[in-house]
Amino acid sequence: MSQEQRLTERIRKYWDQIRKENTYPDIKQFNTSIVEDIWPYCFRISVDKGGSDSFKYEYMGTLLIDLYGNDLTGLTINYNMKGVMGSVIHKRMEEVYKTGMPQQEEGHIINKQGKMVKYRACVLPFGNPREGMTHIVVCMSHRAF
User: Fold this and answer.
1) What is the DSSP letter of 135?
2) pLDDT tens digits along 78-132
3) Class of the 3-144 domain?
4) Angle at 138 between CA 80 and CA 63, to 5 degrees
5) CA angle at residue 64 from 59 to 65, to 5 degrees?
6) How do the domains of the chain map onto residue ranges?
7) DSSP secondary structure letters along 73-131
8) pTM of the model
């Protein structure tokens, strides 16, 4: 099994563990120290439920900052934005938001340095019954060619 598969599988197993019998776990249950070696491959998004269909990057792992070519922390992205690297992942986040179910994604993108990057991503919802879905965590393993 490749390292990329293990990263996404491990974070999904951790998500299942903290979710228990709930639809999805509360972000307060998510302990980054448990997935410390995976966390640089992740980003955390808060969900804007104000009708604007957007996500705000709250955290972006160092290895994804390198991949994307910049730190998107603090940036708000809506579903329809084009030209932002990772827009295919944004579509998966939209599916996760609409269905409340985790999603897998794999493929390739061209990074800012012009290299082809193969990736595998796991997109996981977080929230609670009172507020609904509040966050999405994406783990994205990748390799540049």
Assistant:
1) E
2) 656 555 566 778 888 889 999 999 999 898 888 777 888 899 999 999 999 999 9
3) alpha beta
4) 105
5) 75
6) 3-144
7) TT-EEETT--SSTTHHHHHHHHHHHHH-S-EEEEEEEE-TTS-EEEEEEEEEEEEETTT
8) 0.88
| Structure tokens given for 133 | 């879905």
Mean pLDDT score across all residues of the chain: 86
Residue 2: pLDDT band (50, 70, 90) is very low
Handedness of CA 8, 133, 34, 111 (dihedral sign): positive
Query: What is the rounded average pLDDT of the residues 13-42?
Result: 95
CA atoms within 13 Å, Cβ hemisphere of 103: 20
Closest C-alpha to 120, from 67, 62, 49: 67
- For 27, the 3-state DSSP assignment is helix
Buried b (16+ CB within 10 A) or exposed e, 10-30: bbbebbeebbeeeebbbbeeb
Distance CA 72, CA 66 (A): 11
